[in-house]
Design a protein that fits this description.
The complex is a heterodimer of chains A (about 110) and B (about 250).
Chain A: H1 2-24, H2 32-39, H3 41-55, H4 68-83, H5 86-103
Helix pairs in contact in A: 4-5
Chain B: H1 3-47, H2 51-60, H3 64-75, H4 80-91, H5 93-105, H6 110-118, H7 122-134, H8 141-169, H9 180-190, H10 197-212, H11 221-250
Helix pairs in contact in B: 1-3, 1-7, 1-8, 2-8, 3-4, 5-7, 7-8, 10-11
Classes of the chains: A mainly alpha (about 110), B mainly alpha (about 250).
């Protein structure tokens, strides 16, 4: 029952956000400040997810150079600046993480 | 073959070509989504979501990052309304994508706009925005969108199923730390935004507040941090605009 509520609710909010502008099909115009504000949504939300995920991978603060989440995250950011390509960042970042975890045995 | 049959045959070919091109353009992004889907499936069980629930979520909600975050929140014991509110904030970015596409699809029948709305993901937007916004002759570009969405959707559902099966075969997979796939994907998505001072401001404030609010109940910190980041970016932007306007007046 909880799962039905959860999935139903997630569907409702996700679909309404995606659909609202197509439903009115250009008849409503957003004020410019709102458009600008929305452009900050993706980086702000994603950063609020990333930072705790790499600094507290095991639910407590882990601020040292043997934290593979932190190391590989920094490496991935470097790759993203360098190559500007999402797929390259994902593949190299993941490889770096696997190497640190399984090659060097960090973070177990 | 009479001429109207020839025309409709020609049209079918055009539509099929658009669909295939749409699927093909989405392929590199699908490669990135494969580990994402599999890991979502493997993490579902340990986070407290049943196998059917995980599959239904991928079929019905179809929003990768929101689904991942929902798992994280479930594992942390967050309440259903909090998970739904977080999903809303996380998916707000799709309004931006829709705003870009609306002028190109406003003339289409309603059922097409329903499909376009449901299929609006980061990946499909990235794949179709080239076709819609940069290329000419977009009369049949909605078939391109359909191809992109079908490729993305079937892959997402398939990978979720595969992940659920793998998770049951190898229960210790959750200790491998594969949730890092989500962090690395998001890092790759955030970095290209960092081109202006307001953007940097938004990201730094959001990250710092996310850490400062870890103790908040119901995992509300994510929403608070994101809103603070957005407010910072917007204020920076408006201040910058005002100061350049003032300079222009001065000159």
């Amino acid at each position: 029952m909880t799962e039905v509520l959860l999935i139903g609710g997630m569907f409702m909010v996700t679909f309404s956000v995606r659909y609202v502008l197509f439903a009115v099909a250009g008849k409503v115009r957003f004020p410019p400040w709102l458009i600008t504000g929305l452009s900050f949504v993706p980086p702000a939300v994603l950063t609020a997810i990333i930072v705790p995920a790499v600094l507290l991978p095991r639910d407590e603060l882990w601020l040292s150079i043997d934290n593979p989440w932190l190391l590989a995250g920094g490496f991935a950011a470097g790759v993203a600046v360098w190559r500007k390509d999402l797929l390259t960042t994902i593949v190299l970042g993941m490889l770096c993480f696997m190497l640190l975890r399984f090659g060097f045995g960090l973070g177990w | 073959m009479n001429s109207s049959a020839a025309v409709s045959h020609e049209l079918r070919l055009i539509k099929r070509r658009e669909m295939l091109a749409g699927a093909k353009a989405t392929l590199p992004l699908i490669v990135g989504a494969i580990p994402f889907g599999i890991i979502f499936g493997t993490l579902a069980g340990p986070s407290g979501l049943s196998a059917w629930g995980a599959l239904a979520m991928s079929v019905i909600v179809f929003a990768g990052s929101a689904q991942f975050i929902a798992l994280g929140l479930m594992a942390a014991g967050a309440a259903v309304p909090v998970i739904i509110a977080t999903t809303f904030v996380v998916n707000l970015r799709h309004i931006l994508y829709a705003a870009n596409l609306v002028p190109k699809v406003a003339h289409l029948p309603h059922r097409w706009r329903l499909m376009i709305a449901f299929g609006l993901t980061d990946e499909t937007f990235a794949a179709v925005s080239n076709r819609f916004l940069l290329q000419q002759n977009t009369d049949y570009a909605h078939w391109f969108y359909l191809g992109s969405w079908l490729a993305m959707y079937s892959n997402w559902v398939l990978c979720t199923g595969l992940g659920i099966a793998l998770g049951e075969l190898f229960p210790d997979m959750t200790d491998w730390g594969l949730d890092f796939a989500m962090s690395v994907t998001f890092i790759g998505m955030v970095v290209p935004y960092l081109k202006s001072r307001p953007m940097w401001g938004a990201v730094i404030v959001s990250g710092v507040i996310a850490m400062a609010t870890l103790g908040m109940p119901h995992k509300l910190g994510l929403i608070v941090a994101a809103l603070c980041g957005i407010a910072t970016g917007l204020s920076f932007h408006l201040l910058q605009k005002r100061s350049t306007a003032a300079e222009a007046n001065h000159d």
